[in-house]
Amino acid sequence: MINSLTARIFAIFWFTLALVLMLVLMVPKLDSRQMTSLLDSEQRQGLMLEQHVETELQNEPANDLMWWRRLFRAIDKWAPPGQRLILVTSEGRVIGAQRNEMQIVRNFIGQSDNSDHPQKKKYGRVELVGPFSVRDGEDNYQLYLIRPANSPQSDFINLMFDRPLLLLIATMLISAPLLLWLAWSLAKPARKLKNAADDVAHGNLKQHPELEAGPQEFLATGASFNQMVSALERMMTAQQRLISDISHELRTPLTRLQLATALMRRRHGEGHELARIETEAQRLDSMINDLLLLSRGQQKSELIRDLLKANELWADVLNNARFEAEQMGKHLEITSPPGPWTIYGNSGALDSALENIVRNALRYSHARIAVTFSADNQGITIVVDDDGPGVSPEDREQIFRPFYRTDEARDRESGGTGLGLAIVEAAVNQHRGWVKAEDSPLGGLRLVLWLPLHQR
Hints:
Elements (H helix, E strand, L loop, with lengths): L4 H22 L9 E2 L2 H20 L7 H12 L5 E5 L5 E2 L6 H10 L7 E5 L2 E11 L2 E10 L6 H8 L1 H38 L14 H53 L3 H26 L8 E4 H4 L1 H13 L3 E6 L5 E4 L1 H18 L3 E8 L3 E8 L33 H11 L3 E6 L5 E8 L4
Parallel strand pairs: 8-10
Antiparallel strand pairs: 1-4, 2-3, 2-6, 4-5, 5-6, 7-9, 10-11, 11-13, 12-13
Helix pairs in contact: 1-6, 2-3, 5-6, 6-7, 7-8, 8-12, 10-11, 11-12
Pfam families: CpxA_peri, HAMP, HATPase_c, HisKA
Protein name: histidine kinase
Membrane topology: Multi-pass membrane protein
């Protein structure tokens, strides 16, 4: 087996080319209608018919007026059963042939006119044999035999041989399986590599041992790919461990700070400075929680997936959002609620994604939020609009980055940590969906989230 892809392509190309040339050159020689020499038995039969016709002509006197009848009676008498004899005079007259046979008879006479080397050739369902020399006094005739063809060649094969273009097309069709096998053998490892790359793109960092097989070029590529996946997995694990360690280390001084704040309040009562310290401590605690959630969400291997119904999945999120909007004096309208559409995913991640989008709208809106659900054959689209200050076009792609903040009204005074939309994008990407920001008809920001439906 050739292990080099380059050598395999080179070998198969030349093998296919040689096969095509061989078929083009050799197949026409397999045409049963080719001129061939007689067998010994056929040669003896022809000589015997020659002698019988010659003797018959000698026994019957010549008649200048009806000479052709004399020749016709001789060949008709000695024609073998189911066969016919033809005589051709020195002037080229044909005696004994039917009108519809004259074309093939003339064709055969033109190709075989040497009585020392008689031949035979098939024409469809008949075969011509000859010539044999017949002497009639001073005249010499050529004797031919017309008989049914043994195993006549089909009309389709005759058409193939008569039309070189059809023969070339047939030759190409014969070589097509070999070329298809070549294309398949080249595409198979490429498809495996593409599927493995798609898995990595969606966060599934696992090695693919099947890539390290096949031609040397793909084998080396597969080995390099698996090494890259291993390196990425180590980096992600190290990053996760680092974030967890940092978050854990921050918890201790944060807890001490909150405890010290409580003690100072007990000793000295409420104060503006203490309230500010407590607010910042709570914000830091919330940021640590969001950072851990984002880090865990980026590890796809941690997601446990199930078949979920959209209306059941997000019912609590929407009910809680309505309640919070009422407490804030705002109006949250669900213009089109979710239906019983089936999603294959992690309920916690999808809950968190919608909750972060709705909370983002509640936080920044002035008075009104609108949520719309719709679905088609491919997926579910969720649109969340608010009437807040909105986001400039140059910032819309950046707001999904962790800790990114705009320079306008959506700043730190809103109380956010800057991680909510980053958590949304991570969750949506893990479910092979997408999220984007647009202008809202309410005047603020519109967030559009799309998730694929489960395909049965």
